[in-house]
Structures are given as structure tokens and as C-alpha cells.
């Protein structure tokens, strides 16, 4: 499913709706170039989960935990793991937990990821700085159902 947006606010609105729908143990993969809007999307998700603390890009450690919302949010940016794979870091403890894991640059830890997930790819527009295409691809029935609910909410 592709959603076209024309502003930061629209991106965050979609993310916020998704944040209201996510369930325990879900994993959301956020992909796209630098500046595509991955962290912007993660901020909207946090709002949807009822997290009031400002979500910042995780640097070191690579995971930030937010526990004041409807579900725990684990926000990861694994950019620094490029070429290292991410094995033995214990990231699976987050993936197997009851929280929601959001992973920026998930391609760098491909082999560590669970089979089922929602992949969110943000694509910039060559002509318009504020425009993005948000691609949502579900892997697994739980995620497909969530996208159906998102479509209803968004319609
Ligand atoms: N529609 C949009 N959605 C998301 N970000 C946008 C949009 N339009 C402009 N931007 C800008 O693009 C930048 C995205 O930065 P960020 O979310 O940190 O990207 P990433 O985490 O992918 O590197 C921000 O400066 C934001 O204001
Ligand atoms: Mg980022």
C-alpha cells in the first residue's frame, strides 16, 4: 500500500494512527535514505502510543526505550551497524518482548529480524521537498490486518 503525503504533519498523522493500532510484540521497519523521514515517522508513532516525551534519534546506545505510553516503544537506529550484521547485540530481546520495536535502517540487520513485520519505506520526491511516498508492506497476517484497519481509519 502506498500513501502520498505533502507535509511533515501528514507523515506524522499517518504514523500517529498506526501508533494507535500497533499491538504488543510488533516490529516496524523504517527504511529510506537519510532525511527521508524515518525519525519523523517514529515521532508520530510515539504520539499515537500516548508517549509525551520528545522522541529523538537514538545515537549511542542504538536503542531508546519509552515506557510511559500504551505499550513500551523501543526505537532503534542501526545505521552504525552497517557491515557488522547486529548479531550478539541482544536486539532479539526487544523483538521478543511485549513492546513495539521500531527499527531505522533495518537493512543493516537483515539476518537478525523476525519473519513477520511491517516494512515502512519513505521515498523522497525529486521536485518537492515536503512530499513523500510512504510504502507500507506487511509480512504476516497480523500486519496485513493492521494495514486494513489503518486504511479504514485513514479513509
Ligand atoms: N512529508 C514529510 N515527511 C517527513 N519528513 C519531511 C517531510 N517533508 C519534509 N520533511 C523533512 O525531512 C526531514 C526528515 O528527517 P528525519 O525524519 O530525521 O529523516 P531520517 O530519520 O529518515 O534520516 C526533516 O527535516 C523533515 O522536516
Ligand atoms: Mg533518523
From TrEMBL:
Per UniProt, the keywords (alphabetical) are: ATP-binding, Cytoplasm, Magnesium, Metal-binding, Nucleotide-binding, tRNA processing
Location relative to the cell? Cytoplasm
Q: Which family does it belong to?
A: Belongs to the TsaE family.
Q: What's the protein called, per UniProt?
A: tRNA threonylcarbamoyladenosine biosynthesis protein TsaE
Q: What organism, scientifically named, is this protein from?
A: Dellaglioa carnosa
Amino acid at each position: 500500500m502506498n500513501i502520498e503525503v505533502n507535509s511533515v504533519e501528514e507523515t506524522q498523522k499517518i504514523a500517529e494512527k498506526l501508533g494507535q493500532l500497533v499491538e504488543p510484540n510488533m516490529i516496524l521497519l523504517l527504511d529510506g535514505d537519510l532525511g527521508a523521514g524515518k525519525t519523523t515517522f517514529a515521532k508520530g508513532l510515539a504520539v499515537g502510543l500516548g508517549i509525551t516525551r520528545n522522541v529523538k534519534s537514538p545515537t549511542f546506545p542504538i536503542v531508546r526505550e519509552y515506557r510511559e505510553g500504551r505499550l513500551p516503544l523501543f526505537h532503534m537506529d542501526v545505521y552504525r551497524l552497517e557491515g557488522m550484521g547486529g548479531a550478539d547485540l541482544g536486539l532479539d530481546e526487544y523483538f521478543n518482548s511485549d513492546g513495539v520495536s521500531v527499527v531505522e535502517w533495518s537493512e543493516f540487520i537483515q539476518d537478525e529480524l523476525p519473519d513477520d513485520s511491517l516494512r515502512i519505506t519513505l521515498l523522497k520526491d525529486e521536485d518537492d521537498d515536503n512530499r513523500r511516498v510512504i510504502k507500507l508492506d506487511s509480512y504476516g497476517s497480523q500486519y496485513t490486518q493492521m494495514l486494513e484497519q489503518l486504511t479504514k481509519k485513514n479513509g
